[in-house]
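Running co-folding for adenosine-5'-triphosphate.
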Amino acid sequence: MPIATEPARQRPAEILIVDDEEGMRDFLSICLMKAGHNAEAVASGELALRQMATKRYDLVITDLTMPGIDGMEELRRAVAMPSPPLVIMITAFATTDTAIQAMKLGAYDYVGKPFKVDEIQVVVRRALERVDLTSENQRLREQLRGVQSLDGMVGRSPPMLKLFELVRKVAPTRANVLICGESGTGKELVARALHAESDRPGGPFVAINCGAIPENLMESELFGHVKGAFTGAATSRDGVFVAATGGTLFLDEIGELSLGMQVKLLRALQERRIRPVGSTREVEANTRVVAATNRDLEAAVEAGEFRNDLYFRLDVVQIVLSPLRHRTEDIPLLVDRFFARFNREMARNLEGIRPEAMQWFLNYDYPGNVRELENLVERAVALETGTSVSAENLPTRRRSKAPGATPREPELGESGIDLDQAVADLERRLITRALERTGGVRKDAAKLLGVSFRSLRYRLDKLGITVPSGRDMHGERNG
Ligand SMILES: Nc1ncnc2c1ncn2[C@@H]1O[C@H](COP(=O)(O)OP(=O)(O)OP(=O)(O)O)[C@@H](O)[C@H]1O
Ligand SMILES: [Mg+2]
């Protein structure tokens, strides 16, 4: 049978089909996919809710009568979600009663079985027009409020608005960019945005953390090696320079690069050619380089730890991320954004943020910047026992510059000192403080302390420090 194509939308709609009957699922899926939409189908209300908790759908088309959670209950829970999909109900017996009840509960429309292809397509098209209108309205509303976003980054503070403009301007130029900012301010996000807004967003984005790779492996990691170049090099392998050809190479924590490697990197950047370890031939490396650092590179140059010429080569354009405590206007925006995400991901169905909790977020000074805020929201959403996020699960405030933040230096008294004990005490104090600051997330605490995750775990064991229960539940999330 002929199927009318829909007027072009800017992006395909994400549609979830819920029906316990396989034939109906297949029929609807084919219909909708032919109309250019992304359709997924599940066989029960339970599965549907699980899907909705992990992914945002524009539209849900659900059968009413199903074993277990039926269409009505599914509808009730779907509309309570933070950014709910539109729901179209399919009723076998289109009694006005059930239809009216569904509409009252927030269904967008209903279709009685049996229905024709045209019929369902008209209803779907109308629903999607409504979706477009709503998101357009939301975009306009956000614009009015001065909120802007760029590839997943949100902000409305003057420094962030300036940053968005700068990113849009330099992204298409292929100039090398150096991104500076404290830990957790969003350097990697900016690097990804530079790639996404570049003239070749379809090319690879390859990231390498210069601080995490042992010195002896760094050269091969960057430039690759040929078979037999060193013990263990059983096959030849490309480095990140070659892997990122036609795209963006993100050199994270560039300040950690040894002086020896700095020379080699400078050469690669100057000549746009590299030589794999053990090879006699050079290969072309046409890649855009974006570097990031949370160190003061200029000071490192002064101290002779970072080469001046490399600094200038990388620093064609510099993008500086301000610490979150200097851009309070962005805090409510970020809190809302992370709340919506974690509420959905953990299927918590919380109603929102209580005013006293938002006040807490506004007053805090975020030594760990956006990442810390993200962790705090995640924890608050996970641990909340009420219907909306309260300040209960937010840490009692600890200002980073509070008196006593720097441990007093132990004295070498008349009778001497137990050096090992004193060092262990200091170590324990700093580790405990770092864990408090990151809400118990060990990976972030390791960053604050400038040690690897593995090294922190070893020290925790050695010192017998246990991370408070309920706190480390997300510690391994990123690694
Ligand atoms: N403006 C923003 N809008 C939304 N999310 C943000 C923003 N800035 C940062 N984030 C989020 O905060 C977290 C930290 O960001 P990112 O990893 O880019 O920081 P970073 O500066 O690279 O940190 P580090 O120095 O520790 O590597 C990420 O989860 C990121 O998505
Ligand atoms: Mg980073």
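Result summary
Residues 14-142 form a domain with the Rossmann fold fold (CATH 3.40.50.2300).
The pocket of adenosine-5'-triphosphate (ligand 1) is lined by residues 153-155, 181, 183-189, 294, 334, 370-371, 374, 447 (CB under 6 Å).
Job closed.
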